[in-house]
Amino acid sequence: MGTTLRSRLLLSYVAVLLILLALVGFVLLAFLATRPLPTDEIISDLTAVLLDVRAAEGARLGAGGQQSGMGWRARLSAYEQLLTDYLEALSAQRGVRALLIDGDGTVRYDSKGELAAGASVTLVEQTPLVPTNRMRLNTLVQGRFRDPQGDEWLYVAQPLFPVMMEMSLDLPYLTVAAPVPRATLREVFRVFGGTFLRPLAQAGLIALVIAAALSVLIAESVARPLRRMSVAARRIASGDYRQRVRVEGPREVQALARAFNDMAEQVAVAQQAQRDFLANVSHDLRTPLTSIQGFSQAIAEGVASDPAAARRAAQIIHDETARLHRMVESLLDLARLEAGHLELRRQSLALGDLLRGVGESLSVKAREHQLDLVLSIPPDLPRVPGDGDRLAQVFTNLLDNAIKHTPAGGSVTLSATATRDGVTVTVRDTGEGIPPEDLSRIFERFYQVDKSRRRNAESGLGLGLAIARQIVEAHGGTIKVSSTVGQGSTFTVWLPLKAAF
Length: 501
Ligand code: ADP
Prior knowledge:
This protein is an alpha+beta fold and 501 residues long.
């Protein structure tokens, strides 16, 4: 659990769901706990009690209060005495709190015994029980009062004496009270359980099913392409480089698939290059080795008894050995360049002098090929930072190639111009040119345009341009070629004025 994408998604959905349900439940509970409870029933009960009291104590009032010759205050206190005894019994019997409270909240009597005579309560609200326009003194009122402890009570009250009696405004009210109802925790949970638990659970269950379906869908849309990629990757690892994956799924996964396909392409190209390289190296090694073997055997067997033939055989062996030597040197060079191990000397080079020197050294060869070698190098060419020997190697190779690939009567031009931030050197010939399909590949190791054209005395190894490019790029420069078959080729080298190495 928790390891696959699907189970993680499902877990997170369930977590969110539970948190949400808990929140909703909590809000509902809070609502239930704080909502005001209905008080009508309590008021009716209190009213009934009050009316009962009135009916029962009416007789007493008559008995105790009709004695003539007493002032109403004296009558009141006599009556109160009778009344309170009765109220005490009543409150115990009917489960209400009975009080005598003056209009201003001063307590005369409390059946609960909590409030001493003279203490006062706060009348929070008081309204006639039955709405009337005129407030009469014996009107039944209802309301709420707060005792000194802060507890609130609902009450129904009526002035103790009918209005026709002489009385002052501070006459007492006969009051019956019950606590303002509070939602108990138990009650809250009961209502919650009865009303909300079921729909909440049902909603949760439905959401759970949807979450499960969604997590499967989303997880699959990501996992499926990933699974395909891992299968393809394993196949590539075991040597099947044609493996490609379909670009599908979320955008990030698509990007990964594209990157994967690019990588597979690169691996395939690299593998092909490596195979080509091996094939080329072995081929290039085998040819001279075969002739060395053949000619040395001929000498050993005395076939070349004629000293001139023996010398020729020895010369061939010498030439082929030199060729092998050159080749191994070039390979080593290239390996070092490609690994970035070649230390370039950073000198301030008078590039003009260097180019003139290269032209000079190849002028003989150009003359042998009956070519016109033109040097167009301005005297004020800026100095560039670089490794003189290595750059001379580059331009010698370019000029040598141009001479090799240009038929007699043509011309080869070596020119240089200063640009804003560097120097551009071009080697242009009027030779055979390079077919467009080969142009992009001639800088590859061992790439030669026409393999059948090789194997003459001057044939190279197909490494020269690869090495040239490595050297130029190590200087932070660029090398480019353009060519038209039958008209000639132009190699352009740009070197920066600021050292990039
Ligand atoms: P190589 O040692 O065979 O000359 P390079 O790497 O120097 O190897 O050149 C690669 C191939 O590019 C050559 O085999 C040749 O066919 C082609 N090439 C190079 N320079 C020229 C040129 N100036 N004109 C026509 N073909 C050229």
